[in-house]
Amino acid sequence: MALFRRIIWPLVQLLGAAADTVLDEQFCQNYYTLGGDCSALRSTVRSEVRGKGTPTLELGDPATQPAMVFFHGWPDTSALWANQFAEFCGDNGGYFCVAPSWMDFNPDAPPAEESQLRWSNQVEAFHDVVSDLGLKDITLVIFDFGAIIGYQFLWRYSDIVSRVVALDIGMKVGLPTVPYEGMINDLRQYQQNNINAFLSEDDAAMAANLEIQLRGSSPCDNCSIAPNSTVGVGAKTGWPYRDFVRMDETWTSAFDVPVEQWQFNFVPSFPEDIPLLFLYSSTMFHDKSFRDWIDEREDGLSEHLHMKNTDHWIPVRVPRALNDKMTEWFASTAACKRTSDCTSVKPEKDLAHLAHLGHWSPGVAAQPAALTASIAYGPNAAIDVGKARALSSFGGASIIAVLLLLVAMAVQVTNRLRPADARRPNCSAAKGQDAAGGDEAKGAHANYGSLLSPY
């Protein structure tokens, strides 16, 4: 089976003789919600096999465009990212995009060896895809269980990642829960059902779990996802949840850091020099300590934001809001994706509370001209306090320079007098609200949050 998955099946795909269920039957039908011409978009997306047999969806040129890598979650496929492919990928979007499939989350791929179904092996499989394509300086976009794998991917391969967008699944500051005897009984019911369906190879039980526990809310609720599934997404898709409780070789043993030294519940640490955008639909999907940690980074780049009017599936339910927020954040981090390269613009966070005046964010090119002229807000700014002082000694510009200096100094003094919390970027969003100050999401499937939380 391993030989077939790694050699024969990729060759069949290359010869164009295999079906492409994910792209042909799910991309537009289940995940695309922008209302445009999805058929035209789909015709430009390529279905490939990378690494050691991982199926992918790709758009763009990896040799000439910056890379964006997408990790989906359960119970979805790589087609989840259809709306983001439309916005960011290929000739129109400017990025080369690749969305790899999880092991046993593609109905056309051969089943994985059960011994390979571990989180650590999934991380390596995704890394094989990235290595196969020769990608570096990537923007990593992660969702649901793909976020857990994404945090672990980042921990191992931070040298090839420049920034991270995490959707709806965060972490908890604190030690991990090492698997223990009887742990399955302490999990949420849907998680127990996933594990039991996987162990008993019961496709019908998995389908019932989605309908009863998740109330049929998944965009691909009735899709064929696992290889050889007889009904619905298939029992094989439950394998990631089994790793929560496996004691023969615990998932934490894949790390060379003692669990007593971990900073988070899913990884030992998060790279200090990589900015993070965390967008969430509900506070049920992460611990508040994670948002507090993001606030305390104070790197001028990392932030979190509550997305309103959506359930768990942010990429599908509110694609325009998500794409717009990602575009805005990409602009603010474009000149310094790694925070170690951004020391010169870190003071911009002290002025972020002015963003509501023109609905802009620090570092974005479309800034109010008067503010841009008065002080440096980011890489596109025209002048800062130091430059104003230099100009003040230069004859013809002295009056203008003095005025600029006075304005800049006034702003700085004002900010020093403000409470520390008021100087944090996007402060309204940092308190679990959307950009307009809305309450928690109350969409049609808001109750789903209590079902998926890993805490």
Please provide a written account of the structure:
The structure is a single chain. The chain is an alpha/beta fold. It has 17 helices and 8 strands. Strands 1-2-4-3-5-6-7-8 form an 8-stranded mixed β-sheet, sandwiched between helices. A hairpin with a 3-residue loop joins strand 1 (46-50) and strand 2 (54-59). Helix 8 runs antiparallel to helix 9 and helix 15 (385-392) runs antiparallel to helix 16 (398-417). The radius of gyration is 23 Å and the shape is globular. It starts with a helix and ends with a helix.
DSSP strand tally: 8
Determine the fraction of residues in helical runs and give it as a percent range: 25-40%
Mind describing the biggest β-sheet?
Answer: 8 strands, mixed
Instruction: Return the structural class.
Output: alpha/beta
Strand order of the largest sheet: 1-2-4-3-5-6-7-8
Distance between the termini: 36 Å
| SSE run | HHHEEEHHEHEHEHHHEHEHHHHHH
In percent, how much strand structure appears in the residues? Answer: 5-15%
Q: Unreliable segments (pLDDT under 50, ≥5 consecutive)?
A: 343-398, 411-455
Shape: globular
